[in-house]
Amino acid sequence: MTVLQVKHLQKVFFPGTENERHVLKNINLQVDQGDFISVIGNNGAGKSTLLNAIAGTLKADAGEIDLEKHNVSKKTVAYRSRYMSRVFQDPKMGTVGDLTVLQNLILAKSHTQTINLKWYQKKTDIVYFKALLESLNMGLENFLGTQVKYLSGGQRQALSLLMATLSKPKLLLLDEHTAALDPKTSQEVMKITEKIVTKEKLTTMMITHKMTDALKYGNRLVMIQNGQIKLDVKGEAKKNLDATQLLQKFE
């Protein structure tokens, strides 16, 4: 089943000026249910622009985006959030720093519902949240009443990932979500990512600059260069791809 269909997507920045940049050039991409796609490419290749266009935070100049067979090309970010979730590079963007870990999880679970965070004490949910946090193996279950701004970057990003996947989105977008973390913490968050994506069977697109992660994680690898898809491999073809071969594709 097709979850996402991107058709003839175009984006030009500063059109008609000396700074004109054609960032997306007739991008066509089909994402099937269960795909875990690592998206790589040079700086300025168009990776984040593509994710922004899919999420709705950036309007494409031409082309169409179908999500779950719904044309969302002209739909708002709020509308698209019914079907997709996103984790950003900056851990601070996915959480509310002045709220506690528990309050952040309650917000994520309630999504569009109006609730009173101060008086919310549903014990079944608290037990559920604690069990989820324990599964991350980062000690977050001991910080339910702690304001998120006091967590480490890795803990905060792991919480962001958990919050983004609570609603079991049809599409999960990971926008270099480990780039701001140190190497050890980055690998811990990647293990958590793989665990959640596999357990919940989430269709995922992950932008990364780390070739090792692109090769190690997911069933599919897409390389974007100069606003176009230069490489799209999956299954055995991806498994047989090594770092040297991938580096050559950048040249």
UniProtKB/TrEMBL annotation:
Q: Name one GO cellular component term.
A: plasma membrane
Which portions of this protein are annotated as coiled-coil regions? none
Keywords of this entry: ATP-binding, Cell membrane, Membrane, Nucleotide-binding, Transport
Instruction: List the Pfam families.
Output: ABC_tran
Q: Which organism is it from?
A: Companilactobacillus halodurans
Q: Where is the ABC transporter domain?
A: 4-251
GO MF term list: ATP binding; ATP hydrolysis activity
Q: Where in the cell is it found?
A: Cell membrane
Membrane topology per the record? Answer: Peripheral membrane protein
Protein name, entry field? ATP-binding cassette domain-containing protein
SMART domains per the UniProt record, alphabetical: AAA
